[in-house]
Amino acid sequence: MRRVAVIGAGLTGLSAAYEANRVAPDAEVVVFEASDRPGGRVRTTAFAGHLVDEGADAFLVRVPDAVELCEELGLGDELVAPAQRTAFIRVDGKLRRLPSEQLLGVPTDLDALAASGIVTAAGVEVARRDLEAAHEPLRGDAPIGEVIRERLGDEVHERLVAPLIGGINAGDADHLSIRACAPQLAAAAEQGGSLVAAAARMRARSSADPSRPVFNAPRGGMGVVIDRLTKAVEAEIRTSTPVRSLQRDGTRWTLDADPEPFDRVIVTTPAPVAASLLGRSEATGLLAAIPLVSVVMTTLAVRRERIDHPLDGSGFLVVGPAEGIITACSFSSSKWDHLSNPDNVVLRVSAGRDGDQQALSMSDAELTRTIEAELADMIGMHGQASEVRVTRWVDAFPQYRPGHVELVAEIEATVSSDLPGVAVAGAAMHGLGVPACIGQGRMTARALLG
Ligand SMILES: Cc1cc2nc3c(=O)[nH]c(=O)nc-3n(C[C@H](O)[C@H](O)[C@H](O)COP(=O)(O)OP(=O)(O)OC[C@H]3O[C@@H](n4cnc5c(N)ncnc54)[C@H](O)[C@@H]3O)c2cc1C
Which homologous superfamily is 3-38+223-290+401-449 in? Predict the structure, then answer.
């Protein structure tokens, strides 16, 4: 094997290139990137005197791929955990602290749930029935909402599970696959009987070491991972070089962006672009059918005295149906010690989710006005932000519908038989979180080149 092409220089593509160097050290690796910078949906820029993420700002520690890669890149000592371990949920017009006794929103202590005030007394009583229930073990896949509503009632679903999982995916948990989006909950439901008890057992196992944080990030923001990865990869990274076609050339592949053929090609672009590159393969239609949702991330710097709320948490999620456009808000300067500042507060506000894309069509000025008005009600913000940055992430969140795991297996099998030597990976396939993208980039390179 002499030449390997990686299309897309997001986390998945850069991780694939990094792994390609390891498994095929003699091959020439070329990374093609349409935009003028590597990193894709990961971007950290200067804001209000700090380096603040415009997209992802942390990764899960439990899924080891991101921590492992950071350690390999010499970033182990730079990793920090959020200074705040709890968050709020906005429900019935109030911010209420999320109990820590939960697994992806499934309460593992119903007294703590009752004390939180997030669910009404009647809602807690419905959830308590689960403790004695003989639920059949979950088989196959199902929408998250179907599993949770049936076992714990509508309130626990709508006020806890849906905001948490919906927030991670910018999705509607009534339409998201439990297997693909919440494998831990699927595993708990597979045990049958009480879901609360199964979730409590799993939580006890996973939090056996209380000193281990749930999230990590480099002190300089997620862009540090991209910078290090870009330097570590022994490949030519050609920015501003979109690939528009992939043609078979005997046993090799030719891209319109390069005159010489490649032996292997790893496609890591967003799904619609990947679909367009696969030509007449049936995988094209399967990839193109994965729904996508856009979000807007608005970062605000606000004078400390202009906010009444103590901001003593990592941020809040908003329970639907939406009262406005805000779906979540990170209190970034409370969440991260390296962003704390006695005078200025940094907030990262998310808007846009499956079924509600109105924020995307607003101008920056209208968006800022709307967010400031909503924050006045939510955290007692008065006056205007001193600095604002708006980042539109179009089609950034693939929606995993029930059956997604099988759909991905079908896409991979079809690509491998229709386009030998080509593989597809990325946020639309095996998970959209940072560790999942790193893991699948590396796994795809090993499988295709190893
Ligand atoms: C606002 C936001 C917040 C998030 N927060 C978190 C978080 O806190 N924690 C977490 O774990 N995850 C988070 N995520 C998810 C995570 O950041 C992404 O899913 C992940 O970065 C996607 O990586 P990727 O490489 O698969 O895709 P992308 O980053 O989309 O990379 C694909 C690349 O392909 C390029 N490309 C497109 N077309 C072509 C072409 N024709 N030729 C060549 N290149 C092309 C693109 O320019 C892009 O650089 C967040 C995402 C967003 C948008």
Answer: FAD/NAD(P)-binding domain (3.50.50.60)
User: CA 173 to CA 224: how far, in whole Å?
Assistant: 32
Between the CA of 436 and the centroid of ligand 1 the distance, in Å, is 12
| Helix, strand, coil percent values for the chain (each to nearest 5) | 40, 25, 35
3-state DSSP of 344-362: EEEEEEEECECCECHHHHC
Gap between the Cα atoms of 212 and 438, Å rounded: 21
Tens of pLDDT along 141-169? 999 999 999 999 999 999 999 999 999 99
Pocket around ligand 1 at a 6 A CB cut-off: 7-13, 32-35, 40-42, 55-59, 242-243, 268-270, 273, 295, 297, 393, 396, 426-427, 432-434, 437
292-398: in CATH 2.60.40.10:
no
User: What's the whole-number mean pLDDT along residues 34-40?
Assistant: 98
Q: Report in angstroms the alpha-carbon separations of 114 from 127, 173, 275.
A: 10, 23, 48
Contacts of 354 (CB under 8 A, 6+ apart): 166, 169, 170, 171, 172, 175, 291, 293, 397, 399
**Whole-prediction pTM value?**
0.97
Residue labelled with tokens 């998201």: 176
Q: Look up the CATH superfamily of 98-206.
A: protoporphyrinogen ix oxidase, domain 3 (1.10.3110.10)
Q: What are the start and end residues of each CATH 3.90.660.20 domain in the chain?
A: 292-398
State in Å: Cα 109 to ligand 1 middle. Answer: 36
Note the pLDDT tens digit of each residue in 349-391.
999 999 999 999 999 999 999 999 999 999 999 999 999 999 9
Phi, psi of 391 (to 5 degrees): -120, 120
Structure tokens at 325: 């456009």
Q: What is the DSSP letter of 432?
A: S
